[in-house]
């Protein structure tokens, strides 16, 4: 059998592909720059092809390098799954679990749930990463996350999806706004020209646009926020109105403001919170256990309804 690349060599190359800087990649891998460079050179020698172009100013991957990086990510993810399978075979929700969550869910759902989760599963070491959905999915596919907490609808491809519950949107405006004088509002009364949204990349933006639907002749707002906190400050400053998810309102995000939230009278727009994992991941069982825990936690908290969860892609 010919000499084969090592996982360490592949990890060096994958790290370099994301940073395009030998020193930064070496620091991320906790090795010296010379060690990382030597590892990549040995990988090139083993494969008989140049993977990286180097000069004094730039580092870039060759076409062959891009291909090896893509395959290397798959191999590293599979190796991680193998190790985790052995580690979690006997005890559910134990050991390190890398959980990703989007910013419009993490600060509103997890603070109340995590202390109870730690009490229930004392051997669990949870590592949390907050990021946008696209980047969480990329990390999940690359084996750098075990589970991700996202909002649907979103194209999850062949990932395993476990739905948790629906999260209905409410209309939010200043107290003096005529639109909130009634106890509920209708979707048709929402003027998208006044609607403030999160910036591009947040799935909540897409959900809000989908909820209101296309409005011919009504321009979309050009004012965008980087977070829900900024969004609320903009609404309070008189720049417009917005939609906020129910879990954020339940967590008290409007406390201390002069804003009012009103439910929609019929067909309230909503998103569905879900946990996603790789279908081949040994932590898929843990994803199901975590999902059941979060559903039960919400039921005990007394917040709204908890619909029957569904699983997607259950077959391996």
Helix content: 40-55%
Structural class: alpha/beta
Could you say which overall geometry the principal axes of the C-alpha atoms support? Answer: elongated
Beta-strand residue percentage? 15-25%
Query: Regions with pLDDT < 50 over 5+ consecutive residues?
Result: 304-311
How much is the radius of gyration in Å? 23 Å
How is this structure best described in words?
40% of the residues lie in helices and 20% in strands. The protein contains ten helices and twelve strands. The protein has helices at residues 7-19, 22-28, 33-47, 63-88, 106-120, 133-141, 203-212, 228-236, 246-250, 284-301; strands spanning 52-54, 59-61, 95-101, 124-130, 147-152, 160-174, 197-198, 224-225, 242-245, 259-262, 270-277, 311-312. Mean pLDDT is 84; it is low at 304-311.
Secondary structure layout plus pairing:
Blueprint: H1 7-19, H2 22-28, H3 33-47, E1 52-54, E2 59-61, H4 63-88, E3 95-101, H5 106-120, E4 124-130, H6 133-141, E5 147-152, E6 160-174, E7 197-198, H7 203-212, E8 224-225, H8 228-236, E9 242-245, H9 246-250, E10 259-262, E11 270-277, H10 284-301, E12 311-312
Parallel strand pairs: 3-4, 3-5, 7-8
Antiparallel strand pairs: 1-2, 5-11, 6-9, 6-10, 6-11, 6-12
Helix pairs in contact: 1-2, 1-3, 1-4, 2-3
List keywords for this structure.
single chain; 316 residues; alpha/beta; two-stranded antiparallel ribbon; 12 strands; 40% helix
Entry summary:
This protein is α/β, with parallel strands linked by helices. The chain contains 10 helices and 12 strands. Helix 1 crosses helix 3 (33-47) and helix 1 packs across helix 4.
């Amino acid at each position: 059998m010919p000499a084969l690349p090592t996982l360490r060599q592949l990890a060096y190359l994958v790290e370099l592909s994301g940073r395009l800087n030998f020193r930064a990649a070496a620091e991320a891998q906790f090795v010296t720059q010379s060690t990382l460079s030597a590892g990549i050179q040995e990988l090139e020698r083993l494969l008989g092809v140049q993977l990286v172009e180097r000069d004094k100013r730039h580092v870039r991957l060759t076409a062959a390098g891009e291909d090896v990086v893509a395959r290397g990510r798959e191999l590293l993810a599979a190796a991680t799954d193998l190790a985790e399978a052995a580690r979690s075979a006997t005890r559910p929700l134990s050991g390190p679990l890398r959980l990703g969550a989007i910013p419009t869910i993490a600060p509103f759902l997890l603070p109340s749930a995590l202390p109870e989760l730690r009490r229930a599963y004392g051997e669990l070491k949870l590592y949390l990463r907050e990021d946008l959905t696209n980047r969480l999915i990329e990390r999940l596919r690359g084996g750098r996350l075990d589970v991700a907490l996202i909002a649907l609808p979103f194209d999850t491809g062949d990932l395993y999806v476990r739905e948790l519950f629906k999260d209905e949107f409410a209309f939010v405006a200043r107290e003096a706004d005529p639109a909130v004088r009634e106890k509920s509002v209708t979707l048709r009364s929402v003027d998208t020209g006044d609607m403030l949204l999160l910036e591009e990349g947040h799935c909540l933006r897409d959900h809000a646009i989908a909820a209101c639907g296309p409005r011919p002749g009504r321009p979309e707002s050009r004012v965008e926020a980087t977070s829900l906190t900024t969004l609320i400050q903009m609404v309070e400053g008189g720049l417009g109105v917005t939609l906020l998810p129910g879990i954020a309102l339940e967590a008290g995000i409007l406390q201390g403001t002069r804003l009012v939230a009103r439910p929609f009278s019929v067909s309230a727009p909503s998103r569905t919170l879900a946990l996603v994992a790789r279908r081949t991941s040994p932590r898929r069982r843990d994803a199901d256990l975590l999902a059941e825990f979060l559903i039960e936690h919400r039921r005990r908290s007394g917040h709204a309804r908890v619909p029957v969860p569904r699983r997607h892609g259950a077959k391996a």
